[in-house]
Amino acid sequence: MSAEKLASLHVGHPTGFVNDPTDGTGPWVLPSQRKVGVICLILTESALFVIFVVAYVYYMGKSLNPPFPRDVIPFPTKTPWLASFALFGSSFTIVYAEKMMHKLDRKGFLIWWGITMALGAYFVFYSATEWYELIYHEGLTISVNVFGTTFYSLVGLHLSHVIVGLILLSIIFVLTLFGKIPEDHIEHTEMISWYWHFVDGIWVVVLTLVYFISARY
Amino acid sequence: MANGTTTVEQEEEYTPPPPERVGEEPGSLTQIVQEMVYTVDHKKLGLMYLGSGLVFFVVAGIMATLIRIQLFFPNSKFLEPDVFNRFFTMHGTAMIFLVAMPWVFGFANYLVPLMIGTRDMAFPRLNAFGFWVFLFSGLFLFSSYFTAPGLYNAGSAPNVGWFAYSPLTAKAFSKGHSTDYWTLSLLLNGIGSIATAVNILVTVFCLRCKGMTLGKMPLLVWMFLVTAFLVVIAMPPFSACQIMLILDRYLDANFFDTQAGGSAVLWAHFFWIFGHPEVYILVLPAFAIASEVIPVFSRKPIFGYPIMVAATVSIAFISLGVWAHHMFTVGMTSVGNTFFAISTMIIAVPTGIKIFNWLGTMYGGKIRLELPMLFCIGFLFQFLIAGLTGVMLAVTPFDWQLSDSYFVVAHFHYVILGGIVFCLFAGFYYWYPKAFGKMLDVKLGLWHFWLFFIGFHLTFDPQHFAGFLGMPRRIFTYEAGRGWEIWNQISTIGVFFQGASILFFVVNLIYSYIKGKEAGDDPWDAWTLEWATTSPPPEYNFDRIPEVRSRRPLWDAKHPEDPDWKFE
């Protein structure tokens, strides 16, 4: 087929592969790029966490020397109840923030979003004090035994995600504080809340595994 | 946008903005470099992927040639043992991560948006990010030759093999910084790969032109979709491996330190949880190219489209559960051995279905033996043998005998070179006219094909026998009188045929760019959307976003009296 003949068959031509636009099939609807992108990101991050979780499970109870989990994070006295409560709570407050955002209520959004950030920040603060305690008083470091290695890498990987989430939350907070809620950016903000829910979901796994299950070893 | 959907308008008009030119007149070197650095165009990035992959291919190929020269004579002193170790490590690492992966992503970048009828990838800047991260990870890895000596002067390039088994990588056994170069550059490389894979997934799900439902996508797009899914799932374990290794080496963590209760076998598990899907990450794009080339040159639509898609998806799923067949010799339980032997054999079923479908497509077709088709036929033939030796190695007791022997080397080179690279070359010949508007020269191409085909078989067929005779892989030399000489010597001679063929290929790429025959828009009389635009396509790909009704939109366009959509 010559180039000219091909060109004549180009899009829009009735005999071309672009068929009649009045064929009544309706608009062509595809999922939002942003949503699919964030789902892919969550998928790939989950795969990363799975490996660290598997490493933790594999080495549970295999430490050759103290400190052991039963000494340093015994259930239920050293379980991070309040910090977990704060983090899980932030998943609810962020939903309220989103509701305010859809209503274009800037003040309400800022309040709920601010509470979410405060709860997240408390979680980070608690982890910092916990780690300080573990390192300086209990002598648990990343190199002391396999519990230390897997504990700090798994909890630390999660913590790094909380910190990234907090940075994203503060960007939105500051932008809204000095501006308004741009209607065409509502979905962007929603995506950050998806990420925040993901970080919370990971904490369900980490909390159960590290502080509930492995705490008796 | 707030309702979470994108609506593609039917008559989307697009006028490209006038390109901003800074600096000298168009066509000057500064202009070209500037364009390369600034561009976010999927076609330019695709070509940059393919081009830089080709450079690494030549470098890693030269390393392989030197390895083969060393093994020509027994007790040879051509290369020092250390140099030999560095060469096989860099050869393996570069061929997988700096040649095969960028070629895969190059084809994906160039073809996927064109084939689904859109103007660019979903996230063009992320796309550019992925490319530059890949390129610098490669340059970083190779810079180890100049910068890695470090402490104790024990450095230079990595020498721990491409799967870097623990505890060889521990600080105690790998002093200096060579292993750090390996692990950091592959961590970087993984980030780039994941970014590009996410981009492909989003592009395919969200940017298909009107009428192109998932069931009407070209098979190539389907297979790249599954590949991208595998990258997203299987690459993070590899990154996790690298993070753990860095923690072990720098913070004295104990992941792989046996004396502190860690486990060296865990590295092997984690590596192969990535490593085996990686084989399918590389081979599915090869299948993708074959699935486009074989129908066009057999003048028949692909045989069994839905089965091909189903086979692709099941290969991807099963491939996540076969990794430990690389590790039969570490001494797993018999339950573990049996599970991984059976799952490995099962994966041959969907793969076999594909081979039958390609044969079914060719059967009764009007076959045109053009260069892309030649390479695909070579692929079918060699990939079948590769699959058969694969099933042999899946039999655990057989693997105990031949694991880490030259039989394994021959097997995976059959897969990667005889299977994947043959298809990628078919892709180069098939789409070069689209990318540059010139046909690749047939005479030079035939030289390339036959030299490569002969060289490939001369090199890798004898290695099966060397393996049977007990020659282990990665030894830098061997004693005379073990019956290995003749196989090694044939193998080394074959490498020079391959080297010459690659020379013909590179010359052809340049020669045809300058003096090649004009290709026109649709030189192969093909059926997918990329041939509906000009060669090379404009930056915006299509004047208007096309709309399709069948799997072969261009067939419908050329044959309005007998369109496919009436029968699908």
Folded structure, characterized:
- The complex is a heterodimer of chains A (217) and B (568).
- By secondary structure, chain A is mostly helical.
- Chain A has one domain: Four Helix Bundle (Hemerythrin (Met), subunit A) (Up-down Bundle).
- Chain A is built from seven helices and one strand; from the N terminus they run αβαααααα.
- Chain A has helices spanning 3-8, 33-58, 69-72, 81-102, 106-137, 146-177, 186-213, and one strand at 28-31.
- Residues 7-21 of chain A have low confidence and may be disordered.
- Chain B has 568 residues and is an all-alpha fold.
- Chain B has one domain: Cytochrome C Oxidase, Chain A (Up-down Bundle), CATH 1.20.210.10.
- Chain B has helices at residues 29-38, 42-70, 81-115, 124-147, 178-206, 219-250, 264-298, 305-319, 334-362, 371-394, 396-402, 406-436, 442-468, 485-515, 553-558, and one strand spanning 5-8.
- In chain B, α6 (219-250) packs parallel to α8.
- Chain B is globular, with a radius of gyration of 24 Å.
- The two termini of chain B are 33 Å apart.
- Chains A and B meet through α1, β1, α2 and α6 of A and β1, α5, α6, α7 and α15 of B.
- β1 (28-31) of chain A pairs antiparallel with β1 of chain B, so a sheet runs across the interface.
